[in-house]
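Weekly modeling sync, notes
Attendees: AB, CL, MP (scribe)

Item 1: holo prediction request
CL wants a bound-state model with S-adenosylmethionine before deciding which constructs to order. AB pointed out that an apo prediction alone won't tell us much about the pocket. Agreed to run with the ligand included and paste results into these notes for async review.

Input as submitted:
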Amino acid sequence: MANEDVCSYKRAGFFDSKIRKLFQNPNKILSPYINKGMNVLDLGCGPGFFTLEMANLVGESGKVVAADLQEEMLIKVENKTKNNHLKEIIKLHKTQKDSIGLSEKFDFILIFYMLHEVPNKRKFLGELKNLLKNEGKILIIEPKGHVSKENFEKSVRLIKEKGFKTSKGPKVFYSYSIALEKITN
Ligand SMILES: C[S@@+](CC[C@H](N)C(=O)[O-])C[C@H]1O[C@@H](n2cnc3c(N)ncnc32)[C@H](O)[C@@H]1O
């Protein structure tokens, strides 16, 4: 698989396994960033490994937009929420390869193992900036091994060029991690 290829929905099981929870626990990773009532975006949500925990954290007064390029991934998220209260909190959104296609503003955006799949990162980061509230945060996590240190550092340079302030993200098993905020003055 080339670095920028989109991870097929046929591999969704790999990203949704019970074992993954042991070393990438969604609550541990996300609870410092998400509070009740927030409007949050899981961009490149895949089968929803993080989406459901995001919905638990924002609660009934909040909203989660689960966005993915692949309809099949969104159907997997929908199936998980069909028979419970989370379906009121989670809204599904299908993106285009070259456009996220959302206009609302978010308190928090998660981009987990997805940035390396975006061919035009410059355009993507510009669009992302418009989706973030001034006081909002973005968390980008990328897989070590699959993404080289050099390529991750290249993305970080681009992130800074696009006017984001960066800080250390949470520790995530075998991953690069960075938190982004807008520079507002
Ligand atoms: C490796 S999976 C990770 C899924 C999930 N974030 C996780 O960690 O379990 C990457 C996901 O990003 C999605 N994706 C890739 N490019 C995208 C884009 N431009 N817009 C939205 N989703 C995208 C893919 O369809 C895939 O579901």
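Recorded for review: The chain has a mean pLDDT of 95.
Action items: CL to compare against the apo run; MP to circulate these notes.
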